[in-house]
């Protein structure tokens, strides 16, 4: 199968991506880091084993687009607009509903806010903080 930069993802390809993304260890790694090239290289290799030939950049772009669209629809639903919908919403809801909520609770020495997990360790420790 040819995989050009502008080639649309088929329904089967998206389902394969979601099946890999749904794995607990993948979800944990994706949530816990901002520098995630290595994770997407691994995801691309896993997809190849499933017959989906996409490079890591395509996987990351699709991941980001799906997540953005999901959050847009979820926000609309929470605001009372149930007319907004998307394909794979329920699959994404199952994957993303377990992400820990983040809240801004601390500032560093330069006055910048640091996002910490609501279930994080005591303030002042590095455990639980998102990397900048």
TrEMBL record:
Family matches, as InterPro entries: Myb_DNA-bind_4
Q: Please state every residue range assigned to the domain named Myb/SANT-like DNA-binding.
A: 7-95
Q: Which Pfam families match?
A: Myb_DNA-bind_4
Taxonomy, superkingdom: Eukaryota
Task: Please state what the protein is called.
Answer: Myb/SANT-like DNA-binding domain-containing protein
């Amino acid at each position: 199968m040819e995989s050009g930069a502008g080639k649309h993802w088929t329904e089967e390809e998206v389902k394969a991506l979601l099946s890999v993304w749904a794995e607990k260890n993948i979800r944990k790694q994706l949530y816990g880091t901002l520098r995630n090239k290595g994770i997407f290289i691994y995801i691309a290799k896993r997809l190849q084993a499933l017959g989906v030939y996409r490079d890591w950049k395509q996987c990351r772009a699709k991941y980001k687009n799906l997540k953005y669209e999901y959050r847009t629809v979820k926000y609309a639903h929470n605001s009372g607009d149930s007319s907004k919908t998307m394909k794979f919403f329920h699959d994404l809801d199952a994957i993303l509903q377990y992400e820990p909520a983040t809240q801004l609770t601390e500032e560093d020495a330069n006055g910048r806010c640091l996002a910490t997990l609501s279930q994080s360790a005591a303030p002042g420790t590095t455990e639980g903080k998102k990397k900048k």
